[in-house]
Design a protein that fits this description.
It holds the Pfam family DUF383. The structure is a single chain. The chain is mainly α and 292 residues long. It has 17 helices and no strands. It has two domains: 151 residues, Alpha Horseshoe (Leucine-rich Repeat Variant); 140 residues, Leucine-rich Repeat Variant (Alpha Horseshoe), CATH 1.25.10. About 3% of the residues have low confidence.
């Protein structure tokens, strides 16, 4: 997924003649308007396959410049994060570069991103950071979780709380994507399952229409939880889980008394107006959840 959210537009590059010149402008000492022009050039370039290849050249020379600039020019951080997000949407080796340490400082750019995106004081930078973490966690969930947990110990609980809030919608959705991606890890799944309040706050998102993206996030997370066989009994011990999974699958069909009695009590004798979840992908994921 690229930083503009569409994942597919290809940028028109300005020609090789500008490339080396613009690289030299990626320093905090460069005049701000010139530096902004250079960053805008690389942001456009980052949407193309040519841009990805250029990013990798000379041992990630552009990336190293951007990484240093991120730490030395706070006003450029949102743009830098968008560039890195676009690059990481294309290549796993670019993801590994972003995850690597900054040489002598020993501090990881991604750790700095985790710290900044927690507070959301600068919403533009926070949204850009959340998008980058979303892309990286698709490739390396553990690396993101390791760094994120170090600076945001209550991330799982607070992310679910954010998903139930109305404000900062774009930022919150990307926080949700990060949570979805890291629930592929046993350690994170354990946190969700064992903290009953977190799990019960997550389930209502599966059966609401206000935030379709968050519904899909919640469904994906619950499906991830069910991939862990040794947790099935624990999940089923909370009847709300099965109710949340089955409710979207139930339509207006009439059931016999015997069939009805097999359902959880909350699903018996539902209103005739009850309709089935219209999103086919959501229904498929719910069925996959039941078959785990």
């Amino acid at each position: 997924m690229t930083a503009d959210g569409d994942g597919g537009d290809q940028a028109q590059t300005q020609g090789d003649g500008h490339f080396e010149e613009f690289v030299e402008f990626l320093t905090a000492e460069t005049r701000s308007d010139v530096r902004k022009t250079a960053l805008n050039y690389f942001e456009g370039l980052s949407l193309s396959s040519e841009g990805v290849q250029l990013f990798k050249e000379n041992d990630f020379a552009i990336g190293k410049r951007l990484r240093t600039l991120f730490h030395t020019s706070s006003s450029d951080q949102a743009t830098i994060l968008r560039i890195l997000t676009n690059i990481c949407a294309h290549a796993s080796d670019c993801v590994q570069f972003v995850l690597s340490a900054d040489g002598e400082s020993g501090s990881s750019l991604i750790t700095a991103v985790c710290s900044r995106f927690r507070t959301a004081d600068d919403l533009a930078a926070a949204e850009s950071g959340a998008k980058l973490l979303s892309n990286i966690s698709l490739h390396n969930a553990y690396a993101v979780w390791e760094r994120l947990h170090g600076v945001w110990p209550d991330f799982v609980r607070e992310a679910v709380a954010l998903l139930n809030r109305e404000d900062r919608e774009a930022y919150t959705n990307y926080v949700g994507y990060v949570l979805r991606n890291i629930t592929t890890l046993n350690e994170v799944r354990a946190q969700v399952i064992e903290d009953e309040s977190v799990l019960l706050d997550l389930l209502p998102l599966m059966n609401q229409e206000r935030w379709p993206k968050r519904k899909r996030i919640a469904v994906d997370i619950v499906r991830n939880l069910c991939f862990q066989d040794n947790r099935h009994e624990q999940l089923l011990s909370r009847p709300q889980v099965l109710v949340a999974v089955l409710t979207p699958l139930i339509g207006p069909e009439e059931l016999s008394s015997e069939e009805n009695d097999l359902l959880p009590i909350e699903l018996q004798y539902m209103e005739p107006s009850k309709t089935r979840e219209p999103d086919v992908d959501v229904r498929i994921k719910l069925l996959e959840t039941l078959y785990q």
